[in-house]
Amino acid sequence: MKAARSLAGSNPMSEAPGTPCRKQPMKKQLIRISILQSSKIVTVLCFLMGLIYTLIGIPLIVFGSQQFRIMGIIYALMPLVTAVFGGLFFVIFAALYNFLARWLGGIEVEIKDLE
C-alpha cells in the first residue's frame, strides 16, 4: 500500500483535485522588442564596454611618440564610437526582428516560477 501511495504521489497528474502539484515550465514567446527602451540600454552597455579602449589609449597618449598619441586619442574616443554604432545597429536589429517575428514567430523560451 505504501508503494502505491509513493508512486501515485510522484506523478503530478495523479494527485487529488485541489492539492498543489508541481509547476511545469511555461513557454513564452518574444514577439516584439521595444526599440527605444532597449536601444538606450544597449547604447549604455556599448559605451561601458568601450571604456576598455580608453584604458589602452591613456598610456599611449601619455607615454607614446607622436604616432602612438594619435592612436591613443582614437582609442580614447572609442566609447563614443562603440555607443553610437552599437545603438544604431541595435535599432536596425530590433526593427528587423519585429518585422520578421510577425511572420515567423518570435524567439521561444521556457520559464518557471521559483519558490
Characterization of this structure:
The chain is mainly alpha-helical and 115 residues long. 66% of the residues lie in helices and 9% in strands. It contains four helices and two strands; from the N terminus they run αβαααβ. Strands 1-2 form a two-stranded antiparallel ribbon. Helix 2 (35-63) packs antiparallel against helix 3 (66-76) and helix 2 runs antiparallel to helix 4 (78-104). The longest helix is centred in the middle third of the chain and has 29 residues, at 35-63. The radius of gyration is 26 Å and the shape is elongated.
Which shape, going by the Cα principal axes?
A: elongated
Number of strands: 2
Briefly note the structural class of the backbone.
mainly alpha
User: How far apart are the termini?
Assistant: 31 Å
Q: What portion of residues belong to β-strands?
A: 5-15%
- Taking strands numbered 1, 2, ... along the chain, how are they ordered across the largest sheet? 1-2
Helix amount, in percent? 55-70%
Mean pLDDT: 85
Unreliable stretches (pLDDT < 50, length at least 5) are: 1-11
In DSSP terms, counting alpha (H) and pi (I) runs of 4 or more, how many helices?
4
Largest sheet: 2 strands, antiparallel
H-E string: HEHHHE
The rounded Rg comes to 26 Å
